[in-house]
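tool_call: predict_structure(chain=1)
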Amino acid sequence: MPTPLLTPPPECLAILQTLRSHGHTAYLCGGCVRDALLGRPAKDYDIATAATPEQVEALFDKTIPVGKAFGVMIVVAGESHYEVATFRSDLAYIDGRRPEGVVFSSPEEDAARRDFPMNALFYDPFTDEVVDYVGGRDDIRRRLVRAVGDPAGRFREDNLRLLRAIRFAARTGFAIEDATWRAVVDLSALAATVSPERIAQETETMLLDGQSRQAFSLLHESGLLAVILPEVAAMAGVEQPPDFHPEGDVWEHTLILLGLADRAVRGDYRPASPDQPDVPAGMDRGEFSPDDYAAAVRDCRDALTPWQQTTLAWAGLLHDIGKPDTFSVSDRIRFNNHDLLGAEMAVTVLTRLHRSRRVVDGVYDLIRRHIHFSTLRKMRKSKLCRWLQDGSFPMHLELHRLDCESSHRMLANWFFGVQAWREEQARPPEPEPLLRGGELVALGLPPGPEIGKILAAVEDARLEGTVSTPDEALALARKLAGLDADRSTSG
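tool_result:
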């Protein structure tokens, strides 16, 4: 017996069965059907039905009216939520985002209102049948992203579809059909009307989907990038010093970086290529095997939390946005303080896109310090230890690797950092502090910031190995506070 195209969870099948047993046509729809035909696992299971929102409410114990006016309900089944939408036709669009109303209709009319045929497919899990009214299966076979109906009209209805066309083309590797592509280019200015949150959601998905280089190449070629992220588009054509950047201008460097990040997202941790340019003065690639390299990248990526993966992705895209405004030529092309300006610009961009404060702050820190790895092996031990102990250090390691691999490819500082980070991770937990603030207060020091500075200096000395016992720590604190001098004077 052939394997069915889709096998939804039992509770999803139960929802479908309940709808059908009460006389309502009901199918799985949208992305789960498309992804199944592409041989990819479904991320979620959405249902389209002839039942009205009121009928859905009456049939199920727990529902959430997330978009009841537009026919969209959530049915809660155990711990899972399933979107159940009534077949509909849209009335006129008035704001480039949503229709002024809907008319409940048939599956044929529902398919005809959707964005791309490959997203307008229905599936009957009880008969293993794909229901296709607009040629979605043929588009998938031909590897095409094509608008349903007139492309310009479809994009004017909802301007976000301009970005979605790019995202789906990059994600699937499909070409954008000629008329659809022309409409994207001609109407790219309409992306300025899309809300910051929707722009951010689409671009963030592109960054994290494992095909960001292709996505941002298409955004740039279509003119959309200059509309939604003009600071990023400005990097195109900005020359770089060839000794350190044999790959080309700032935009080409960024695209190569995105491609390397894509490989890591897809779980490919191997070195990019055995070829490398001449070694610039004072720099070296480092001694490590391809297996060592892959294991180090894997360790760094495995240490990242989901929000850190998002933060790293944004930082990779934005790390050099300060270069166009700091370009100068003296002994060579230079970008003095591009890291500091770029960090500030990134805050402006991400705040405009309403990203979380944690992501904004994380990107700021990554960009502000992204060239600090050039001094990593020269840092005081205490300063290095503090950085290694910071939970953001794996992000810094990975951004540095991506930055180097997409330019001069000298990775000695990166591999030194990996080894130091691993050693720090393997060290036993820190012992109790050698000195506490209360002991300094007992010596007569007033509570305040000065005590904090002394304790930090004592901790630095411990990390440097110059003090190791409470008595040595107390002696150093007395010296830093000037207490020994006071005692000798009074004697």
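agent: The chain is about 50% helix and 10% strand. Proceeding to next step.
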